[in-house]
Amino acid sequence: MLIELLLSQTQLTPLQLACLVPIVLWAYTIFGLTGFGSSIMAMPLLTQIVPLRTAVPMILFFDLVAGTLLGMRSRSHVHVGELRRLMPSVLVGMISGLALLMFAPERPLLLLLGLFVLLYPAWNLLFKRGFSELDPRLSVPFGVVGGMLTAMFGTGGPLYTIYLAGRLRDAAQLRATTSTLIVLTAFGRLILFAVAGLYANTAIFALAAMLMPCAIAGYFMGGWLHRRIAPDKVIRVVWAILISAGFGLIYRSALG
User: Fold this and answer.
1) Residue 16 maps to a domain
2) Is position 9 within any domain?
3) How far apart are CA 150 and CA 161, in angstroms?
4) Once rounded to an integer, what is the mean pLDDT over residues 33-46?
5) pLDDT band at 214 (very low <50, low <70, confident <90, very high)
6) Of 48, 183, 191, 220, which has the maximum CB count within 10 A?
7) Is the pLDDT of residue 211 over 90?
């Protein structure tokens, strides 16, 4: 009865809801494993079923819950120095992204992001061997562009991860620091979305209520996998996920 009531608010069929379940479960299994990737893995699939302006605010709720759970369990691994280095640039990017949200065309931005997210990790995965340290000054472009994409599409996580993977050798530290950054930006997005009036759509809350158990289950499944996969393999999983996400974004931009 409750599911039927919630479905009536979303205008989705039971089959469409059933298709959303594995998408959310998969996305947050990846989040539990790596500390990032939920939005960029889910968005290309979610937006085939629900509108972008519904999918992005809904995923934000899941990011807040999963990121908070991960932060509580792994806060000792967070690299505070890298967060302090990134956050000013991320905030500038998010403010700029809010301005662009109303005017910038979506397809070219997603295509550019998809190409970058595809090519950079493909190079790392196929041609580079071992850890290669990035210049800390790169926190500015990565933070600004990542913040802009976070505000507009919720897809800034790969850029934060690319930068942090070039600064942090330890896989647990990379996972904890990335997830903490995502939680911090999620609170910023929550304020931006509330100001923009996106949460006037009650379908967002109905969908979030139905799919939240899938997000939490995926998070714990990913955490279980993280404890059983060697750190060097986790880094390679990160690059492989980014390549998959890049293909997804290019596909979505091609479809318009």
Assistant:
1) no
2) no
3) 13
4) 78
5) very high
6) 183
7) yes
Number of domains in the chain: 1
The residue behind tokens 């472009």 is: 141
Residue range(s) defining the domain that contains residue 140 = 23-255
d(CA 174, CA 153): 23
Quick one: tokens of 189? 């997005």
Residue 195 placed within a domain: yes
Condensed to tens digits (0 to 9), the pLDDT of residues 101-125 reads 667 776 777 787 778 777 767 766 6
For residue 98, pLDDT over 70 is answered with: yes
Q: Write b or e for each residue in 44-53: b if 16 or more Cβ atoms lie within 10 A of its Cβ, otherwise e.
A: bbbbebbeee
Q: Is the pLDDT of residue 129 over 60?
A: no
Amino acid 251 reads Y
- Across 54-75, average pLDDT: 81
Q: In Å, what is the CA distance from 35 to each residue of 4, 67, 198, 202?
A: 33, 8, 26, 29
* CB-based contact 70:179 (threshold 8 Å): yes
Residue 122: per-residue pLDDT = 72
Q: Is residue 15 part of a domain?
A: no
CA distance 115 to 234: 23
Mean pLDDT of 192-201: 82
Cα–Cα distance measured from residue 62 to residue 79, given in angstroms and rounded to the nearest whole number: 23
* Helix axes of 157-165 and 106-126: crossing angle, nearest 10 degrees: 30
CB contact set of 106 (below 8 Å; sequence gap of 6+): 52, 152, 153, 253
